[in-house]
Design the sequence.
């Protein structure tokens, strides 16, 4: 049983350490979530509980990996931003991405019942993951703008699409109505036909969810048994605009970005 | 909301396709499973139910990914062998590994209650994953021999260790007794002190679990409503020796190996 | 002058070791050789001296790197096959490819005068290089067949093209004549219009050049001053067919291939 | 002769594009230059002509690749800095490094006679190359500081070593004298024993060579046959300190750096 005789096979493992001093973005994506959301009767175009479950998973991932400074989620995807100096697992790509995806997935199944107490999970859902390196603060910010723009474009389309379908159109008819329309026409359609003011819809649907650590005051009892208030960084979900400057002006220094 | 303005950030994604015509081995490993098994009161040195849950997860991964021709598991790890011609996700490394790990994890949490109906899952477990490429059938077989040898060495050690601890020794005392002992001495210790014949212990503990597709006869009802027997390939768990030639002689052609 | 303060920059170097146990093929290609051959008045379609210079460079590269078991060249390119077990520079990709290309280039300029004693080298030529990994003997052989087929197709075309041009056609007219013709038509054109039997043209032009080490008897004087004959492996150029089985049957065992 | 039958082998080529928006540094290093400099009787510790030949090669590489904004050389090595936005060869690593090394090597052999008219080149020299990516301007500057510090440390040592050897010491004796000495002791040794003021030695030896494009006025004759003065960017060698701020203050904007 000479173990050493076989151990040479370890030499086939590749060193896949990522470049130092770059922002790392891990994006987790639902695998086959179109079918998954159908089977589980998710509300269309947005299922609030399903989005809150995604946020919960992301919060727990952030609580486990302290090098994640920001997470942004929409629909069935979540992006995690690891700070430039991150040395987690020696920056080994597959180690980082596989662990993150696993933790996210695990939380999704584990917490399902809390968000859908009356709905049985019919089969185990899964996610894929990827890592992208961004050398520059501007590249990182543009990445996040790209995802939030994607959220906006898809959500506006889906809101129209499902309004049409819920009003009696077939899916094909709804597609035909929307083909070639620009944003202003979609807004107009929602307002004139369905009396929906798109900008009044919940921000979580229109802008997705941003999670960063915010300082909060925590009431606790100290070692002497006395009530005290302590400041602590808590992962906090909001639904802000992360394309415009305002968010970044507020949070740059905290996140380690230079603009 | 010019999406195109930001889309350049996609160019930072790396093409990580693996080399064609090599065996791909994905190994999934429990993350922090020492603590996890303690917290959940796993029987030591082997918890039958926990191992069966691992096997269940691996079976479901194989049922989802048809390019996996063989899986081998022991302790809190599982290796999946994808055939050389596998073109799953264009052989993109992080896509393959992240999806596999996610599916494995999801099954673990999803099926927990079936294997531990009386034990609550206290927190979401996670796994990491890696991919190794093996150009040659012999390299692949040596990889599997390496893992099964590892299973044997660890299990023999752990069986002694826990026998000593269960008999009243501290963990440190048990370690001291075992330090420097060879296999024959450990076998002797089990037999003389604890009346345990190591070779009579369950094969799943001593050899781990091998999963391949085996042809099986399935009784079913055909379109005319008549009972028929059909042959079908079913993923099947066994606990065979995969170091010696016998297993390979039996299964080579099925697995696409040349020896 | 704290050196250590800056040495962290070495961490940005990537480990680019290639997979063990795969054939490595380095292909060196002339950069801008269309212009280079024009400026230096190379005979068209084939300049014997220029091809011999390429062969000389390849021989010297093989004499320097003993892990190269075979080289194949045609036109302004040369492919070098490193044996599977090659551990040159720990199989680091850029180290291997850069050194090989450098040595090839250096030999080209260094030996120019020997092949073109009456022709001044007008400016320094350059080459690029790449490495491809082949896990399987058949993949490697197919690679070489691909290059020799390329040689055949290009040479047949060029032989026709330049025969037409030398006979007074413009380059555009020659292209038009050849557009859409198959091999047999090109052979016929050469024979009927120019009385050229393509298969009688020099093998170096039609098949390119293959270099392997062949055992040869070397006459030398031993330490006692006596004439002796020693067997030695000498890099040897030939112009054989490497697509058909014959070459491989003769040389398989020597090259470490299994067919 | 079905070419397509074999063309699948191209699929084994890996896409090795480097990350966008990072500084790329290519370092070219002499291979076996200790022996090469001995065989060709280079003056020790510094051969002015050999260094000038290196500079000439680097200038020509810069004239060929316009994306190189700065080059730094010392001893038998040269580093080339490609600007962040460089899209040369789609940033493919082996293509970039192999071409650069080839061009450098070619120039070395091609120009040998101009620098050593009385010295025959005995055999073809070669160089290796590597690429390193630097995401940040500070990382890049630290890289260059690292190389210039290396130049200083080695040159001070070598100046002492060869002064001792030229004065009659064996190489081993010289090593023993210098073991454990710090910079100030080496300076003192040169001054007291050999009357050498280290800081008065040629800057090229002490600081290496920096090449950037400088605007120069070129006298030329225009299309009307009239003498005119035109401004043009010309690659220019100097021997400045590139560790201190001064050089960067002068050249930052030109080089595209932000400090």
Sequence:
């Amino acid at each position: 049983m000479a173990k050493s005789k076989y151990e040479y096979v370890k030499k086939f493992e590749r060193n896949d350490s990522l470049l130092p001093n770059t922002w790392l973005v891990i994006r987790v994506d639902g695998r086959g979530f179109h079918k998954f959301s159908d089977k589980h009767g998710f509300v269309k175009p947005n299922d609030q509980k399903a989005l809150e479950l995604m946020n919960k998973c992301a919060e727990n991932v952030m609580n486990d990996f302290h090098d994640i400074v920001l997470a942004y989620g929409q629909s069935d995807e979540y992006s995690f931003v690891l700070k430039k100096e991150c040395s987690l697992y020696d920056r080994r790509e597959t180690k980082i991405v596989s662990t993150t995806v696993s933790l996210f997935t695990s939380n999704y199944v584990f917490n399902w019942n809390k968000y859908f107490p009356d709905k049985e999970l019919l089969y185990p859902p899964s996610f894929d993951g990827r890592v992208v390196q961004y050398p520059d603060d501007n590249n990182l910010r543009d990445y996040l703008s790209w995802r939030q723009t994607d959220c906006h474009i898809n959500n506006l389309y889906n809101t129209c699409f499902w309004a049409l379908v819920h009003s009696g159109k077939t899916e094909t008819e709804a597609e035909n109505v929307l083909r070639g329309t620009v944003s202003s026409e979609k807004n107009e359609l929602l307002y004139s036909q369905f009396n929906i003011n798109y900008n009044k819809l919940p921000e979580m649907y229109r802008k997705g969810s941003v999670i960063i650590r915010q300082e909060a005051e925590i009431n606790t009892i100290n070692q002497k048994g006395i009530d005290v208030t302590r400041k602590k960084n808590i992962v906090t979900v909001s639904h802000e605009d992360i394309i415009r400057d305002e968010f970044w002006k507020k949070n740059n220094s905290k996140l380690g970005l230079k603009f």
The domain at 19-143 of chain B is CATH 3.30.70.3000 (Alpha-Beta Plaits). Strands of chain B lie at 23-31, 68-74, 77-82, 126-134, 209-221, 227-238. Residues 137-166 of chain B form the longest helix (30 residues).
